[in-house]
Amino acid sequence: MCNGMVACETRASLAHSLAATSLLLLLGMLPTGQASGCPRPSVVPHGRGNLTETNRGSFPVGTQLQYSCDPGYTLDGYSIITCTVSGHWSYDPPRCNKNDVCQPPSEPENGGYNCHPPPCHRLTQGTVIEYFCDEGYILKGGYQFRTCDNGEWKSPMQISCHPVQGEEQQSQLPMPALPIVASTASSVTFILLLVVLFVLLQPKLKSFHHTSSQTFILFS
Ligand SMILES: *[C@@H]1O[C@H](CO)[C@@H](O)[C@H](O)[C@H]1NC(C)=O
């Protein structure tokens, strides 16, 4: 089969090198196949990235993803990650941590708010803000306050200041108060009248009693 030892060895080494080359080629192809994209990054709880293709398994090199957190959460890490040539993301996706600091709420027109504890620059967990109105204005619905809880203000209702004049007629002297005042005044007058009448009539009643008993004596 082989024409001498030398020829035989050459053929064997040729086969060897062929196998080695193909193996190297195969090995070389494998990493290049992976480097064509980055795997889908892990989901960020309470946050979102601009991953347009939702069911996509891998992202091409150079893809940029931008992350943001839900209201009440703060981004920790890098908001933008890029798919590198090595098939890895430049950074791990960021994390969204629950906030305990509240955003300063907007001040009502013709009013404002005080913070407890003061000052108002850092609104931490449990901070209470108390609303007030400028002179000549009154808070709609009476006394208003809000508490910072887990980075959010409880009771998100609208707080507003109204001019006093319109409000005063309605709340300080409401319509049902007038009949009450009137009836109280009239009953006091009536009792006073009774007392006066009693005092005035007492001597007359006594004399009438007297005369009737006298008549009784006369007739008997
Ligand atoms: C995500 O947003 C970034 C920054 O706005 C942008 O550069 C990138 O192209 C966006 N990526 C996708 C997949 O939409």
Description:
This protein is of the alpha+beta class and 220 residues long. Among the domains are: 38-98, Complement Module, domain 1; 111-168, Ribbon (Complement Module, domain 1). 37% of the residues lie in helices and 23% in strands. The protein is built from 3 helices and 13 strands, in the order αβββββββββββββαα. The chain has helices at 4-34, 164-171, 177-219, and strands at residues 37-39, 47-49, 58-60, 64-69, 73-76, 80-82, 95-98, 111-116, 128-133, 137-139, 145-149, 152-153, 161-163. The strands form 5 sheets. Strands 8-9-11-12 form a 4-stranded antiparallel β-sheet, with no helix packed on it. Strands 2-4-6 form a 3-stranded antiparallel β-sheet, with no helix packed on it. The chain is rod-shaped. The structure holds 2-acetamido-2-deoxy-beta-D-glucopyranose. 2-acetamido-2-deoxy-beta-D-glucopyranose (NAG) is lined by residues 50, 52, 63-66. Residues 1-35 form the signal peptide. Keywords: Disulfide bond, Membrane, Signal, Sushi, Transmembrane, Transmembrane helix.
| CATH architecture descriptor of the domain at 38-98 | Ribbon
The helix/strand class is alpha+beta
Q: What's the helical proportion of residues?
A: 25-40%
Poorly predicted spans? 18-34, 211-220
The helix count comes to 3
Q: What radius of gyration results from the CA coordinates? A: 47 Å
Strand tally, please? 13
What is the CATH H-level superfamily of the domain at 38-98? Complement Module, domain 1
Q: Characterize the largest beta sheet: strand count, sense, and whether it forms a barrel.
A: 4 strands, antiparallel
What fraction of the residues are assigned to beta strands by DSSP? 15-25%
Order of helices and strands: HEEEEEEEEEEEEEHH
Distance between the termini: 179 Å
CATH topology of the domain at 38-98: Complement Module, domain 1
What's the CATH class label of the domain at 38-98?
A: Mainly Beta
How do the strands line up in the largest sheet? 8-9-11-12
- Which ions and ligands are bound to the chains? 2-acetamido-2-deoxy-beta-D-glucopyranose
Mean pLDDT equals: 75
Shape: rod-shaped
Disulfide bonds: 69-96
Protein name: Sushi domain containing 6
Keywords: Disulfide bond, Membrane, Signal, Sushi, Transmembrane, Transmembrane helix
Transmembrane segments: 177-201
